[in-house]
């Protein structure tokens, strides 16, 4: 096992790029870390420079880690190596969330949690959608009409975004949204008073997310404009352009598909909670 330093993180990012789209979640984390985005994670691999498993976990030396939900992510090319790393390199003594992992590894996670006498439950099941070519992106007709009202979120908007976020509404959600607005690209549509009525953010693993339109402003095509605008911005700045859509959210799935995003029909990712 090896904890990667800054130079090694750059190399690991290039390796993960070769395994897109299934490596997107971990690749997105490393993409942000390698561009000096704040992170409370450390990155470990089973061996170096060749590795079979790359795992992200809270950095015990980072004092800010306790301010955020305890999260673990991994990308694996070998199930047995993954099993060993989960046993030895993850702290099972307190609650944590494993996010965006390949559903095919669920049994391995359940078996290790049983060995550790730790309970578990599913959090959410998602599809992975991504934009392999920016030329496939649909530009909605309303984009030019709304151009003067397209802006970015600022810290005065943290509260409304947190309150309307499905996974927010609490203090940790507030800190998470504040971190995202402060450090990652955002896009919103303003009303005549300059207040946001629709928005989209980018998670710390560089995926599009938290797309929301206030109920009284729906049906005007704002979501399409936000997706198009943000996808172009991310592409221009070198970010990956992808998102996770919950399995039962058919409306959002069709929306992103119609915008030009594609998915691997055989792939599903999971978020799972342990030791709750």
Strand count, sense and barrel status of the largest sheet are:
9 strands, mixed
Query: Could you say which structural class the secondary elements and strand pairing correspond to?
Result: alpha+beta
Secondary-structure element series: EHHEEEHEHEHEHHEEEHEHEE
The count of β-strands is: 13
Arithmetic mean pLDDT? 96
Beta fraction of the residues?
A: 25-35%
Q: Count helical runs.
A: 9
Shape: globular
Radius of gyration: 19 Å
Euclidean distance between termini CA atoms:
27 Å
Task: Please bin the fraction of helical residues.
Answer: 25-40%
Residue ranges: pLDDT <50 for 5 or more in a row? none
What does this molecule look like?
With 276 residues, the protein is of the alpha+beta class. It is 33% helix and 25% strand. The strands form 2 sheets. Strands 1, 2, 3, 4, 5, 6, 11, 12 and 13 form a 9-stranded mixed sheet that branches. A 4-stranded antiparallel sheet has the order 7-8-9-10, covered by helices on one side. A hairpin with a 5-residue loop joins strand 8 and strand 9 (196-202). Helix 6 (158-164) packs across helix 7. The two termini are 27 Å apart.
């Amino acid at each position: 096992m090896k904890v990667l330093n800054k130079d090694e993180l750059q190399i690991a990012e290039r390796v993960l790029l070769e395994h897109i789209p299934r490596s997107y979640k971990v690749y997105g984390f490393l993409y942000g870390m390698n561009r000096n985005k704040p992170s409370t994670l450390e990155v470990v691999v089973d061996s170096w420079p060749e590795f079979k498993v790359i795992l992200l976990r809270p950095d015990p030396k980072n004092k800010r880690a306790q301010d955020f939900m305890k999260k673990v992510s991994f990308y694996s090319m070998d199930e047995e190596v993954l099993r060993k790393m989960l046993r030895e390199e993850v702290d099972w003594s307190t609650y944590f969330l494993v996010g965006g992992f390949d559903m095919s590894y669920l049994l391995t996670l359940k078996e290790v949690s049983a060995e550790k006498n730790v309970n578990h439950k599913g959090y959410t099941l998602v599809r992975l959608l991504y934009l392999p070519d920016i030329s496939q992106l649909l530009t909605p007709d309303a984009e030019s009409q709304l151009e003067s009202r397209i802006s970015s979120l600022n810290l005065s908007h943290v509260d409304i975004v947190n309150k309307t976020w499905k996974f927010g509404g609490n203090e940790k959600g507030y800190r998470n949204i504040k971190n995202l607005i402060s450090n990652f690209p955002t896009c919103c549509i303003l009303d005549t008073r300059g207040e946001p009525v629709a928005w989209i953010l980018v998670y710390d693993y560089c995926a599009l997310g938290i797309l929301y339109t206030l109920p009284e402003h729906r049906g005007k095509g704002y979501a399409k404009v936000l997706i198009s605008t943000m996808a172009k911005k991310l592409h221009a700045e070198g970010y990956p352009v992808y998102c996770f859509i919950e399995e039962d959210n058919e409306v959002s799935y069709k929306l992103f598909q119609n915008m030009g995003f594609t998915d691997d029909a055989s792939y599903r990712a999971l978020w799972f909670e342990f030791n709750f």
